[in-house]
Design a protein that fits this description.
The structure holds 2 protein chains of 2 kinds. By secondary structure, chain A is of the alpha/beta class. In chain A, strand 16, helix 13 and strand 17 form a beta-alpha-beta unit. The longest helix of chain A has 16 residues. Chain B is mainly α. Chain B has one domain. Chain B has a two-stranded antiparallel ribbon. The chains are: A alpha/beta, B mainly alpha. Chains A and B meet through helix 2, helix 3, helix 4, helix 5 and helix 6 of A and helix 6, helix 7 and helix 8 of B.
Chain lengths: 451, 275
């Protein structure tokens, strides 16, 4: 049974000449529907049509028609659609209104005027449905990313919607957290809800999906989830030369905040032309370790040594580095400062961003912004490249482009450290893996990739 | 501790601190806010606030000392040809500046319990129904304030590693632009999330309606008494104004407005026992 339909829908964001969705006509079925496609292709925009954020919240121009659960999206405000359509966003940190779990889950119920005497029961029911009944009373900021995202899911389903839409809900989660969120989403389908989810981790979802919608270049087509296969990721990259001399080292290093250690007594090093991957759960200390290596954080104890030279650092929040009027200017800034004789177009082409070189970087989609930030920090030949979750929100093609770029840097002799949950990226690039959890680091060598 | 009781006390503190020019009453309000916060939150938690108000008060004092060349008691004098800075530097000017500093510090610390002692949802729950939408929106925005500090750290670190160095005011645009834009984008994302959960769709209910305890009612009553007494003192002239110019003199102190200020110390007893 169709729960929604789009008829010749075209949508332009405010100030944009190119439509984000172009003449889209499709039906959306009951059960689990997966939305797949390259980053920047229009997936998030399509999902926002389903609860009316597009066009009611974002503005812009819209043509054609869209109906969801019998409601005309273009005539029904989001706040009214919210009673029927729940929505979970990508970033679990930026969708929290209240500081405690139960109050956060109650927020939507308060908004739609559910009587006070019924709220506690509905909150408990939603927390159980999301598999987080044990989190009642917890402070939101003490939760892991996976737990936070399930709180967001519980907050949505507490309103008893008929449809729940999830926009890349696992893009910032470790594998365990992601598995829990996806398992919860598929369980909701078993309980009779319609779920539409946009994801890059497709393998498990496709097996449970009733429908598949492919979105790219603002166009949409349906496919059979039983037949369609996602593009496969690149395998391990071939090493052309052995790693060189030591470029950085931590000796008994402890780092943290306000005197409280986050990682303790770490002994680790990296050599020129070597890729060290920091793995581990959300909140385990990967970012702290990366900042310690970069010099952004002073050690509380122990020693940190680095060979002099340029450090290319991609922070967890990629937009922290984007401030120039065009992407080309961002890349040029780094090249001018480093003195590297390279054209900005070289790295933009390598990351598939040449077509947006003259656009304002912050106007790009989440996945494109991630690549834009990589392009801004990685051009030329840095001595060290330290990348925090570099594949966040990236599709397979973009990840493969990143693998090629990092491989090239490795061959040029850069010492590379990646903090990532991405097992495909780890498989493709890691020379050594350091598992970071509970403030401790356990190292292992990836023998298959050694020269 | 109920936010309505806190609001009654804070409003009275603000009224007294801002409605009189008499430094004795202002200083008493400052002492009441400081001791109430120290008793309830502890000195360690209010250290940051103390540092901030000391800096602001020092700045206010210095600004008036350097810019107001008025008063009879001259400490030293700079040649009048020096633009802005030339002229006499007086005890009266530094005293007036210090009084302004006390006023600002008292006002800031009067509002501090909302941040230090109450969770955001406690403030929202205490608002009357007519203000609930605005209150929720403000609270959600306030939740983003820590994000500004985090964003500043992230951006500064990332840009430093990209070669940025502070070279004059223009160079700071590389830091401030991403910080401001990230914060705005965070606010937009939060607003989007609120909208998607039906915010603004009609009258709101509350998961836990707020209940006033006896100590909350007592604080409201004491605050109302202090407010009334000080308002009458202002009207009748018992709480006389004070100006250090042209010659410094001690402020007049009357027992009735003084008693109103002393009542503001009530939270030292009520909040200590309540938490």
């Amino acid at each position: 049974m169709a729960i929604g339909s789009l008829a010749n829908l075209t949508y332009w964001y405010p100030g944009s000449r190119e439509p984000a969705l172009s003449d889209v006509s499709t039906l959306l079925d009951d059960g689990l529907t997966v939305i797949a496609g390259p980053s920047g292709g229009g997936k998030s925009t399509l999902l926002r049509v389903l609860n009316g954020l597009v066009p009611h919240f974002h503005g812009g121009r819209i043509a054609g028609g869209a109906r969801v659960l019998g409601l005309d999206v273009i005539r029904t405000p989001t706040r009214d659609l919210a009673r029927s359509v729940g929505f979970v966003f990508q970033d679990p940190e930026l969708q929290t209104v209240y500081s405690t779990v139960d109050r956060e889950v109650a927020f939507g119920l308060e908004n739609i005027g559910v009587p006070t005497r019924m709220i506690a029961g509905r909150v408990e029911e939603a927390l159980q449905a999301a598999g987080i009944g044990h989190l009642v009373g917890r402070t939101v900021r003490t939760l892991s990313g996976g737990e936070r995202q399930r709180v967001a899911l519980a907050s949505s389903i507490a309103m008893r919607p008929q449809l729940v839409v999830l926009d890349e809900p696992t893009s910032q989660l470790d594998p365990d957290g992601a598995a829990l969120v996806l398992a919860t989403a598929t369980r909701l389908v078993d309980e009779g809800l319609a779920v539409i989810i946009s994801e890059h981790r497709l393998d498990r979802l496709l097996k449970a999906a009733a429908g598949l919608v492919l979105v790219g270049g603002g166009r949409v087509e349906r496919a059979d989830p039983a037949i369609w296969r996602p593009p496969s990721a690149a395998g391990p990259s071939r090493r052309m030369s052995a790693p060189g001399s030591e470029t950085w080292s931590l000796e008994g290093a402890t780092a943290g905040f306000n005197g409280q250690p986050v990682v303790e007594d770490v002994n680790l090093n990296g050599r020129a032309g070597e890729v060290v991957v920091l793995n581990g759960p959300n909140g385990g200390g990967k970012t702290t370790l990366l900042r310690l290596i970069a010099g952004g954080l002073a050690p509380l104890a122990g020693r940190v040594q680095r060979r002099p030279g340029r450090i290319a650092y991609l922070p967890q929040n990629p937009i922290a580095v984007l401030h120039r009027p065009t992407l080309r200017a961002e890349v040029r800034l780094t090249l001018d400062r480093s003195g590297d004789h390279e054209l900005p177009e070289e790295i933009l082409n390598a990351l598939g961003l040449l077509h947006v070189a003259d656009r304002y970087p912050r106007d790009l989609s989440t996945g494109e912004r991630q690549r834009a930030a990589l392009a801004a920090v990685l051009p030329g030949t840095p001595t060290m490249a330290l990348l925090d979750e570099p594949t966040r929100g990236m599709d397979v093609a973009a990840r493969d482009a990143l693998v090629s770029l990092v491989t090239r840097l490795r061959e040029r002799g850069a010492a590379i450290v990646l903090a990532t949950h991405d097992s495909d990226l780890t498989l493709a690039l890691a020379d050594r893996i350091a598992y970071v959890a509970n403030g401790r680091v356990f190292e292992r060598v990836v023998e298959t990739v050694q020269p | 501790m109920n936010a309505r009781g806190v609001a009654a006390w804070s409003a009275t503190c603000l009224f007294i601190a801002l409605s009189t020019s008499n430094p004795a009453y202002k200083a008493l309000v400052l002492a009441a806010t400081l001791s109430s916060l120290a008793a309830s939150a502890g000195l360690r938690r209010i250290r940051g606030w103390l540092t901030a108000v000391i800096l602001i008060a020092t700045f206010a004092t210095l600004l008036n000392f350097l810019s107001a060349h008025l008063g009879a008691t001259v400490l030293f004098e700079l040649p009048p040809q020096i633009p802005a800075l030339g002229g006499p530097y007086t005890v009266e000017a530094v005293t007036f500046g210090f009084t302004a500093g006390i006023t600002i510090a008292a006002a800031i610390l009067s509002a501090a319990p909302f941040s230090l002692l109450l969770a955001s949802h406690e403030v929202v729950d205490a608002l009357p129904a007519a203000l609930s939408r605005t209150g929720t929106a403000i609270t959600a925005s306030l939740n983003l304030v820590p994000a500004v500090a985090t964003s500043f750290t992230q951006v500064t670190e990332a840009q430093r590693l990209r070669g940025w160095r502070p070279r004059g005011p223009r160079s700071w645009s590389e830091i401030l632009v991403p910080v401001v834009l990230s914060t705005i984008e965070g606010s937009i994302q939060l607003a989007e999330s609120m909208e998607a959960r039906g915010f603004g769709s009609g009258p709101r209910t509350a998961a836990r309606p707020t209940r006033m305890q006896r100590s909350d009612w007592l604080l409201v009553a004491v605050s109302a008494l202090a407010l009334g007494l000080f308002a009458i003192s202002r009207t009748t002239g018992w709480a006389a104004d004070w100006l250090p110019y042209p010659t410094l003199a001690a402020p007049a102190i009357d027992p009735r407005p003084l008693a109103a200020c002393v009542l503001l110390f009530a939270p030292v007893l009520l909040w200590r026992s309540g938490r």
